[in-house]
Every structure is written in structure tokens, then in C-alpha cells.
Design a protein that fits this description.
InterPro entries: LysR-type_TF_proteobact-type, LysR_subst-bd. Residues 22-228 form the LysR substrate-binding domain. GO terms for molecular function: DNA-binding transcription factor activity; sequence-specific DNA binding. This protein is α/β, with parallel strands linked by helices. The protein has two domains: 1-91 and 201-230, D-Maltodextrin-Binding Protein, domain 2 (3-Layer(aba) Sandwich); 93-197, Periplasmic binding protein-like II (D-Maltodextrin-Binding Protein, domain 2, 3-Layer(aba) Sandwich). The chain has seven helices and ten strands. The strands form two sheets. Strands 2-1-3-10-4 form a five-stranded mixed beta sheet. A five-stranded mixed beta sheet has the order 7-6-8-5-9. α1 packs parallel to α3. The longest helix is centred in the N-terminal third of the chain and has 16 residues, at 3-18. The N and C termini lie close together (11 Å).
Length: 231
């Protein structure tokens, strides 16, 4: 069964399971890049599955606090440790370098990580909760054993999707997250110049108050998101 058929079947099963039982306002917090690139394209299907739920979507940095309890579910990028909250793993992530094909026109080759010295680096300064300005590139280059590259140069942004937009416009080389960049790769807007994917140090999780999933609406949206992530 192809992915779209599986997706439709799961959505229909969830819709039938919770039909007539859920409704009202539902507050979902989500880190901005994941919201923009992964969740937003899926929201029409969520709306179709549960038409009586009124969504309140809040874009919030991973550095923001989840302690004020003003949410039903939150999607965050972290190690899954949230004192006072329960979590469900949603997606693991891979990291790799990407750039626009136009960046390489008339420039030195970029066939190996060592050749990054010839190109600007693009940094997401909010790569994960508690990260610092150059943390993501440092983590990636250390993991693949690439030495001698000064990461304290290039351009910084405070959203992953802005970093990817800058890469798409030929401003430099960015660290991409596999779950957030499928369209750009399929359309040829970005390329992976030298491979070397690694597992990210953090993963996407659903966070919620203990006992929150006892309510039908929270359980329904929670289960729907988990099923979307495994397809």
C-alpha cells in the first residue's frame, strides 16, 4: 500500500474513532521551522479528520518555556526530558549540509567537507533548546570528523527555515534537517554536495501535562500526529 493510501486509511480510522466525541478549542505549540515546513502542509488533513476542533497554533522557539501550561500539546526539538511533563517521541532527525546549485557556479568544488573553507556558512542560532550561535555546525563537523574548518564565520539566522531560505538563494551552505527539506531537494532547489548525513542530537517530541491524554480531543490529535510521523 502506498504512503498516501496508508495516510488516508489512518486519518479515516481516527475520524471514525473520535467522531462525535471531540470539539472545542485546541492549543498547539510548535517550534516555528517545524510548524512551517512539516506541520502546516498537514493541517488541512487534521481539519478534515476533526472538523469540530478549533485550532489555536502558537509558533514558539525551542528556547521558550513550556511551564505556563497554556497549551494542550507542544512539539519541540529536545532530548525528551521535561520535568513535570510527559512526552511521546515524534520524529528522529538527520542532519546534512545543503546548498543551492548556483552557489557552485564558477567556484571551487564542494565534494568534501574540507572544501567548506571556500564557502560562507549559514547558522541557525536556535538549532535546539540551549544551543549557541555556531553549535549546529560544530556538532555536525565534529561528528563527521572534519577538522580545521572555522565555523565562526558566515551568516546567522534565528530560524532553521530562514537558514534554508538563505541557502536556496545561494548565500552559503546550511545544515538541513531531513524532515523539513524534502520539497527543496525533490525540486532541485537545493543539493547535498558531499553527503555525510548524521543523526541529530535532539529529536522531535510531543510534550503534554501528565494525564492530558485522558481527554478525547488531546488523545485524538496526539494519535493523529504520531501516525503522520510514521508514514
Amino acid at each position: 500500500m502506498v504512503a498516501n493510501e496508508v495516510q488516508s486509511r489512518i486519518s479515516e480510522e481516527l475520524r471514525l474513532l473520535y467522531s462525535g466525541r471531540i470539539g472545542g478549542v485546541f492549543k498547539l505549540r510548535c517550534i516555528p521551522s517545524f510548524l512551517s515546513k512539516w506541520l502546516m502542509p498537514r493541517l488541512p488533513r487534521l481539519q478534515e479528520a476533526f472538523p469540530d476542533i478549533q485550532l489555536r497554533i502558537i509558533a514558539e522557539d525551542s528556547s521558550g518555556s513550556l511551564r505556563d501550561d497554556d497549551f494542550d500539546l507542544a512539539i519541540d526539538l529536545n532530548d525528551g526530558s521535561y520535568p513535570g511533563l510527559s512526552t511521546t517521541p515524534l520524529l528522529e532527525e538527520e542532519l546534512f549540509a545543503v546548498c543551492s546549485p548556483s552557489l557552485l557556479v564558477g567556484k571551487p568544488p564542494l565534494d568534501t567537507p574540507s572544501q567548506l573553507v571556500h564557502f560562507p556558512l549559514l547558522h541557525d542560532i536556535t538549532a535546539w533548546r540551549g544551543s549557541y550561535e555556531y553549535a549546529e555546525w560544530e556538532f555536525y563537523l565534529t561528528a563527521i570528523g572534519a577538522d580545521g574548518i572555522d565555523v565562526r564565520r558566515g551568516h546567522t539566522f534565528n530560524r532553521n527555515h530562514l537558514t534554508i531560505d538563505a541557502a536556496r538563494m545561494g548565500m552559503g551552505v546550511a545544515i538541513a534537517r531531513k524532515a523539513l527539506i524534502t520539497d527543496e531537494l525533490e525540486q532541485g532547489l537545493l543539493i547535498v554536495p558531499f553527503g555525510h548525513p548524521i543523526k541529530a542530537r535532539k529529536k522531535y517530541v510531543l510534550a503534554y501535562r501528565e494525564g492530558a491524554l485522558s481527554t478525547p480531543a488531546r488523545r485524538a490529535v496526539h494519535d493523529w500526529l504520531v501516525n503522520e510521523a510514521v508514514i
